[in-house]
Amino acid sequence: MATALKANPRTDLKGSATRKIRKDGYVPAILYGNKIESQPVAVEGVELLKTVRAIGKNGLFSLDVEGKKKHQVMIHEIQTDPLKGEYTHIDFFEVDMTSKIDVDVPVRLAGEAPGAKEGGVVSHLLYEITVNCLPSEIPEEIEVDISNLNIGDSIQVADIRSQVSVNVVSEDEETIVTIQAPAAEIEPEQLEGEESEPEVLGEKQSEE
Protein backbone atom coordinates (compact mmCIF):
# COMPACT_ATOMS: atom_id res chain seq x y z
CA MET A 1 0.00 0.00 0.00
CA ALA A 2 2.33 2.69 -1.27
CA THR A 3 -0.07 5.64 -1.24
CA ALA A 4 0.18 7.68 1.95
CA LEU A 5 -1.30 10.97 3.09
CA LYS A 6 -0.10 13.11 5.99
CA ALA A 7 -2.60 14.52 8.48
CA ASN A 8 -2.36 16.95 11.38
CA PRO A 9 -4.59 16.81 14.48
CA ARG A 10 -7.15 19.58 14.91
CA THR A 11 -7.67 20.85 18.44
CA ASP A 12 -9.54 24.08 17.76
CA LEU A 13 -12.92 23.17 16.22
CA LYS A 14 -14.39 26.69 16.14
CA GLY A 15 -15.74 27.97 12.84
CA SER A 16 -13.07 30.65 12.61
CA ALA A 17 -10.31 28.06 13.02
CA THR A 18 -11.89 25.83 10.38
CA ARG A 19 -12.11 28.72 7.93
CA LYS A 20 -8.42 29.51 8.53
CA ILE A 21 -7.51 25.88 7.83
CA ARG A 22 -9.24 26.10 4.45
CA LYS A 23 -7.68 29.50 3.71
CA ASP A 24 -4.23 28.00 4.37
CA GLY A 25 -4.86 25.31 1.75
CA TYR A 26 -5.89 22.48 4.06
CA VAL A 27 -9.09 20.45 4.24
CA PRO A 28 -10.69 19.73 7.63
CA ALA A 29 -11.47 16.07 8.13
CA ILE A 30 -12.48 13.42 10.63
CA LEU A 31 -10.80 10.07 11.20
CA TYR A 32 -12.96 7.33 12.72
CA GLY A 33 -13.40 3.57 12.81
CA ASN A 34 -14.85 0.69 14.75
CA LYS A 35 -11.76 0.32 16.91
CA ILE A 36 -10.66 3.96 17.36
CA GLU A 37 -12.14 7.14 18.75
CA SER A 38 -13.12 9.83 16.28
CA GLN A 39 -10.30 12.31 15.75
CA PRO A 40 -10.51 15.69 13.95
CA VAL A 41 -7.61 16.14 11.53
CA ALA A 42 -6.62 18.30 8.57
CA VAL A 43 -4.89 17.31 5.33
CA GLU A 44 -3.15 19.37 2.67
CA GLY A 45 -5.61 20.08 -0.14
CA VAL A 46 -3.31 19.45 -3.12
CA GLU A 47 -2.00 16.19 -1.66
CA LEU A 48 -5.56 15.07 -0.93
CA LEU A 49 -6.55 15.69 -4.55
CA LYS A 50 -3.52 13.70 -5.76
CA THR A 51 -4.44 10.83 -3.45
CA VAL A 52 -8.07 10.73 -4.59
CA ARG A 53 -6.99 10.68 -8.22
CA ALA A 54 -4.44 7.93 -7.56
CA ILE A 55 -6.59 5.51 -5.55
CA GLY A 56 -10.09 6.17 -6.86
CA LYS A 57 -13.24 6.25 -4.77
CA ASN A 58 -12.77 2.92 -2.99
CA GLY A 59 -8.99 2.78 -2.76
CA LEU A 60 -7.08 1.99 0.41
CA PHE A 61 -4.23 4.17 1.61
CA SER A 62 -2.24 5.05 4.69
CA LEU A 63 -3.15 8.14 6.72
CA ASP A 64 -0.11 9.26 8.68
CA VAL A 65 -1.26 11.34 11.66
CA GLU A 66 1.54 13.65 12.82
CA GLY A 67 4.13 11.01 11.98
CA LYS A 68 3.13 9.05 15.09
CA LYS A 69 0.59 6.50 13.84
CA LYS A 70 -0.45 5.24 10.45
CA HIS A 71 -4.04 4.21 9.80
CA GLN A 72 -5.19 2.12 6.84
CA VAL A 73 -8.21 4.07 5.65
CA MET A 74 -10.80 4.54 2.94
CA ILE A 75 -12.61 7.73 2.01
CA HIS A 76 -16.15 7.42 3.33
CA GLU A 77 -17.54 10.81 2.32
CA ILE A 78 -16.31 13.97 0.63
CA GLN A 79 -18.10 17.32 0.88
CA THR A 80 -17.49 19.76 -1.97
CA ASP A 81 -18.16 23.45 -2.44
CA PRO A 82 -20.91 23.51 -5.13
CA LEU A 83 -19.61 26.74 -6.66
CA LYS A 84 -15.83 26.37 -6.45
CA GLY A 85 -15.69 22.58 -6.70
CA GLU A 86 -13.17 22.49 -3.84
CA TYR A 87 -13.17 19.90 -1.06
CA THR A 88 -14.59 21.37 2.15
CA HIS A 89 -14.62 18.32 4.43
CA ILE A 90 -13.72 14.65 4.27
CA ASP A 91 -14.41 11.53 6.33
CA PHE A 92 -11.66 8.92 6.66
CA PHE A 93 -12.75 5.46 7.81
CA GLU A 94 -10.12 3.17 9.33
CA VAL A 95 -10.72 -0.32 7.96
CA ASP A 96 -10.15 -3.69 9.56
CA MET A 97 -8.26 -5.60 6.89
CA THR A 98 -9.60 -8.90 8.27
CA SER A 99 -13.31 -7.97 8.20
CA LYS A 100 -15.59 -7.83 5.17
CA ILE A 101 -17.42 -4.59 4.42
CA ASP A 102 -20.15 -3.35 2.05
CA VAL A 103 -18.83 -1.04 -0.66
CA ASP A 104 -20.42 0.66 -3.69
CA VAL A 105 -18.35 -0.09 -6.80
CA PRO A 106 -18.68 1.98 -10.01
CA VAL A 107 -20.17 0.30 -13.10
CA ARG A 108 -18.51 0.81 -16.49
CA LEU A 109 -20.26 -0.14 -19.72
CA ALA A 110 -18.03 -1.83 -22.30
CA GLY A 111 -18.56 -2.54 -25.98
CA GLU A 112 -21.00 -1.13 -28.51
CA ALA A 113 -24.58 -2.37 -28.51
CA PRO A 114 -26.03 -3.44 -31.91
CA GLY A 115 -29.26 -1.77 -30.81
CA ALA A 116 -27.45 1.55 -30.55
CA LYS A 117 -26.23 1.20 -34.13
CA GLU A 118 -29.85 0.75 -35.19
CA GLY A 119 -30.82 4.02 -33.55
CA GLY A 120 -31.65 2.76 -30.06
CA VAL A 121 -30.69 4.71 -26.96
CA VAL A 122 -28.32 3.22 -24.36
CA SER A 123 -29.89 3.99 -20.99
CA HIS A 124 -27.41 3.45 -18.14
CA LEU A 125 -29.60 3.15 -15.03
CA LEU A 126 -27.39 1.68 -12.29
CA TYR A 127 -24.04 3.44 -11.84
CA GLU A 128 -22.89 1.57 -8.73
CA ILE A 129 -23.23 -2.01 -7.49
CA THR A 130 -22.89 -2.85 -3.81
CA VAL A 131 -20.50 -5.69 -2.96
CA ASN A 132 -19.35 -7.32 0.27
CA CYS A 133 -15.72 -8.34 0.58
CA LEU A 134 -12.43 -7.80 2.37
CA PRO A 135 -10.95 -4.30 1.91
CA SER A 136 -8.05 -5.74 -0.08
CA GLU A 137 -10.46 -7.41 -2.54
CA ILE A 138 -12.56 -4.37 -3.48
CA PRO A 139 -12.81 -4.11 -7.30
CA GLU A 140 -11.87 -0.77 -8.81
CA GLU A 141 -14.88 -1.06 -11.12
CA ILE A 142 -17.35 -3.60 -12.48
CA GLU A 143 -17.34 -3.92 -16.27
CA VAL A 144 -20.63 -4.73 -17.99
CA ASP A 145 -20.46 -5.87 -21.62
CA ILE A 146 -23.29 -4.46 -23.75
CA SER A 147 -22.02 -5.70 -27.13
CA ASN A 148 -24.89 -8.20 -27.47
CA LEU A 149 -27.78 -5.90 -26.63
CA ASN A 150 -30.43 -5.15 -29.23
CA ILE A 151 -33.31 -2.67 -28.95
CA GLY A 152 -35.49 -3.70 -26.03
CA ASP A 153 -32.78 -5.77 -24.36
CA SER A 154 -31.49 -5.07 -20.85
CA ILE A 155 -29.03 -6.37 -18.29
CA GLN A 156 -29.96 -6.92 -14.63
CA VAL A 157 -27.72 -7.51 -11.65
CA ALA A 158 -28.61 -11.21 -11.82
CA ASP A 159 -27.05 -11.41 -15.29
CA ILE A 160 -23.59 -10.29 -14.14
CA ARG A 161 -23.51 -11.71 -10.60
CA SER A 162 -21.45 -14.77 -11.57
CA GLN A 163 -18.93 -12.58 -13.42
CA VAL A 164 -18.00 -10.54 -10.34
CA SER A 165 -15.18 -11.99 -8.24
CA VAL A 166 -16.71 -10.88 -4.92
CA ASN A 167 -20.15 -11.21 -3.32
CA VAL A 168 -22.75 -8.89 -4.88
CA VAL A 169 -25.22 -7.38 -2.40
CA SER A 170 -27.41 -5.44 -4.84
CA GLU A 171 -30.79 -7.02 -5.69
CA ASP A 172 -30.97 -9.32 -8.74
CA GLU A 173 -33.87 -7.43 -10.35
CA GLU A 174 -32.10 -4.07 -10.43
CA THR A 175 -31.60 -3.03 -14.06
CA ILE A 176 -28.10 -1.87 -14.94
CA VAL A 177 -28.62 -0.88 -18.57
CA THR A 178 -31.30 -1.11 -21.24
CA ILE A 179 -31.50 -0.27 -24.94
CA GLN A 180 -34.56 1.88 -25.55
CA ALA A 181 -36.34 2.29 -28.87
CA PRO A 182 -35.59 5.54 -30.72
CA ALA A 183 -37.66 8.40 -29.33
CA ALA A 184 -38.75 9.36 -32.85
CA GLU A 185 -40.77 6.14 -33.10
CA ILE A 186 -42.93 7.19 -30.14
CA GLU A 187 -43.19 10.97 -30.16
CA PRO A 188 -45.32 11.50 -33.34
CA GLU A 189 -48.17 9.31 -32.02
CA GLN A 190 -48.05 11.05 -28.63
CA LEU A 191 -48.14 14.46 -30.28
CA GLU A 192 -51.11 13.51 -32.49
CA GLY A 193 -53.03 12.32 -29.46
CA GLU A 194 -52.25 15.49 -27.53
CA GLU A 195 -53.28 17.73 -30.43
CA SER A 196 -56.50 15.92 -31.33
CA GLU A 197 -58.20 16.27 -27.96
CA PRO A 198 -58.32 20.13 -27.83
CA GLU A 199 -59.70 20.16 -31.39
CA VAL A 200 -62.58 17.87 -30.42
CA LEU A 201 -63.34 19.93 -27.34
CA GLY A 202 -63.32 23.06 -29.45
CA GLU A 203 -65.82 21.58 -31.91
CA LYS A 204 -68.20 20.63 -29.09
CA GLN A 205 -68.04 24.09 -27.63
CA SER A 206 -68.76 25.72 -30.99
CA GLU A 207 -71.81 23.49 -31.53
CA GLU A 208 -73.21 24.51 -28.17
UniProtKB/TrEMBL annotation:
Residues 5-92 form the Large ribosomal subunit protein bL25 L25 domain. Residues 186-200 have a biased composition (Acidic residues). It holds the Pfam family Ribosomal_L25p. The keyword rRNA-binding applies. InterPro entries: Rbsml_bL25/Gln-tRNA_synth_N, Ribosomal_bL25/Gln-tRNA_synth, Ribosomal_bL25_b-dom, Ribosomal_bL25_C, Ribosomal_bL25_long, Ribosomal_L25_dom, Ribosomal_uL5_bac-type. Keywords: Ribonucleoprotein, Ribosomal protein, RNA-binding, rRNA-binding. One of its GO terms (biological process) is translation. Residues 100-182 form the Large ribosomal subunit protein bL25 beta domain. Residues 182-208 are annotated as: Disordered. One of its GO terms (molecular function) is 5S rRNA binding. One of its GO terms (cellular component) is cytosolic large ribosomal subunit. This is one of the proteins that binds to the 5S RNA in the ribosome where it forms part of the central protuberance. Part of the 50S ribosomal subunit; part of the 5S rRNA/L5/L18/L25 subcomplex. Contacts the 5S rRNA. Binds to the 5S rRNA independently of L5 and L18. Belongs to the bacterial ribosomal protein bL25 family. CTC subfamily. This is Large ribosomal subunit protein bL25. It comes from Halalkalibacter nanhaiisediminis.
